[in-house]
Structures are given as C-alpha cells and as structure tokens.
Write a structure and sequence with these properties.
- By secondary structure, the chain is of the alpha+beta class.
- It has one domain: Alpha-Beta Plaits (2-Layer Sandwich).
- A four-stranded antiparallel beta sheet has the order 2-3-1-4, covered by helices on one side.
- A hairpin with a 4-residue loop joins strand 2 and strand 3.
- The longest helix has 11 residues.
- The chain is globular, with a radius of gyration of 11 Å.
- About 20% of the residues are buried.
Length: about 70
Amino acid sequence: MKKVVFDLEPLSCPSCIKKIEGTLKKMDGVREAKVLFHSGKVRVQFDDNIVHVDELQKTIVNLGYPVLSQRVS
C-alpha cells in the first residue's frame, strides 16, 4: 500500500468532502480517502498495483478541484 497527499485550494463547503471522499472510495484499489476540509488536503491510501496516483489526481480534477501538489510515500 502507498499513501499520497494531494494539496488543493481550501474547500468552500462541507459537501465537497463527501463528494471527493465518496468518489475516491469507490475506485478499485483505494483503501482509504480522507479530506481535511480547512487545509484542503486529501489523503489517500491505495494499492499501486491496482490504481496509479495519476488516476487519483485526474479523478479529483475531474470533480472540479485543481490539485496544487502531491506527495507520495
């Protein structure tokens, strides 16, 4: 399992959390997705044999949330 933290601009509404988390959690290979509302961070634990970090980022961007940076560990 790998972890990635995506930095977004601060989110404007609590429903953004459910939208991002819910979509990521439905993806094959995603074990956990957590949005930190005030900091605009999205933490994802995933299996990189099933899903690639670029796919995760693309999903977030397609939901309308530009990704400013990412850190994989």
